[in-house]
Amino acid sequence: MSLSQAGEDAHVVREYDTQKNTFLPDGFVLPSGKQSVTWVDADTLLVARDWGAGSAGLTQSGYPYSVRLLHRGQTLSQAVEIYRGKRTDMDVSPESLRDDKGHQLFLVSRHKDFFHTELRLFDPSTRTLSVLSLPEKYDSLSYFDGRLILHLLQDWSVGGRTINADSIVALDPQSPAQPQLVLSPTSRQTIGDGMGDAMAVTRDGLAVVLYDNVQPVLKLYRRNEAGEWTAHTISLPRNMAAEIVSSDPTLSQAYLQMEGFIQPPQLWGLDTASQSVRPIYRQPDLFEASGLTVEQMSATSVDGTAVPYFIVHPKDWQRDGVRPTLMTAYGGFGLSYLPVYHPDLGITWFNRGGVYVMANIRGGGEFGPVWHEAARREGRQKAYDDFAAVARDLIARHITSPRHLGLRGRSNGGLLAGVEFTQHPDLWNAAIIGVPLLDMMNYEQMAAGASWAAEYGSISEPGPRAFWEKMSPLQALKPGISYPEPFIFTSTRDDRVGPVHARRFAARLESLHLPFLYYEDVEGGHAGTVNAAEVAHERALEAIYLSRKLMDAP
């Protein structure tokens, strides 16, 4: 069990007895730190953590790069190192997989940067490692019938053929140069949401969540007697997000979580033997949604790219050009931005006539690695152009106007909000900038910033440096510009991005004698808040801000 102090990424690991519902008095206890742990057997762990600066501390990104075997009863100093990466890596972590026949794989992943990974097999009996010759860009590892299954994030030329990025392949770990193709999406499809919740193994085969134009579909794959993969497709409700939350390779059952903007989270049971799904449990509705509807629309960016977006609005609305509208997006790290149930928005925004828009801009993973790659490093302006294009599309459709249009973003989305705030101050009357990256000229020296150089480009490189000199929100603030009054929030305990970005941005606004609102929660880490009272408080501040800026009469 992992326990975090005030929501930090650093955490304590303790052994817990699920039968007696208590911590084991003589169980494993790993002190607080950024670490990863997996069982080897009942008395042995594979652990990656800070072992001390004198032996193997942390990478420049603030994550471990030494993996050691720790036996029950040993102190940390007695653990035996089985692999050490480099201090310039992002991190190194252990993992274990078990297939439907009980075979187990122990893996060590050396993350050279955010996207490139070297994978090694670990044999506990001989304590030896062997490198798996695989593409370095992949995610979502699974294990079925002795075959390692992975989602490719790059093209793979192997055995005289090329397997396209975004495909799923299965291979024998002992003979990885002979992969089988399981699934290859089209240009407007992708596997999952980019967070590794897209695949699950049961004793019958492989379940995959596929998104077709940002709409979920469930695919079930089985291997026939000839060893070929065959597919069965199950339709899922539209305008919702789906992820696989639990599965067991020895059973025919798995579980999906479904949720939408106006549908609370639901648990669905998947029976891979009968190839069927059914709702099992639905959380209660926390706001009145019968008068609301969700549509999917599309805008055209400056280079002609079609950018889809979801819009939540009253069923009986009129396009009068003055609808209070809140926009959001993420657009980074290949992560898809999908429908989420926000009770606070339901109560304070939807039920008061507000319109909500989620834009699926480039930089995310909505259409696979190509969609992400288009807005990486110096290409990132495409993401910012896409977001502005959606805003202009809303105005052109007579849904809203700049007087009634606001935006909200967190983390990388906070960077997006900061750029839109400085690039297009005339488009918005409200900007919520949350736990953000804003000083991009110095981000690599702040908290875990060095780990994102593969996404944003290193400032030590001429190309990214020239780009961020123009685009970094902190440096882009200029005197004599009429900016909307922003609401900036961060957390003192954010050990991922760090509060210094938000503080510097607020200080720069203050030096320019520009109005702003600033809130810093003393707890919460990068998640922003850790308990219901703090969540309610911070969201209430946002709701009052949005109401005054976008809903109140001029």
TrEMBL record:
Domain Peptidase S9A N-terminal: 2-280
UniProt-listed InterPro entries: AB_hydrolase_fold, Pept_S9A_N, Peptidase_S9_cat, Peptidase_S9A, Prolyl_oligopep/macrocyclase
Residue ranges of domain Peptidase S9 prolyl oligopeptidase catalytic in the record: 347-550
GO cellular component entries: cytosol
Gene3D superfamilies, per database record: alpha/beta hydrolase (3.40.50.1820), Prolyl oligopeptidase, N-terminal domain (2.130.10.120)
Pfam family, one: Peptidase_S9
GO biological process: proteolysis
GO MF annotation, one: oligopeptidase activity
Keywords attached to this entry: Hydrolase, Protease, Serine protease
Protein name: Peptidase
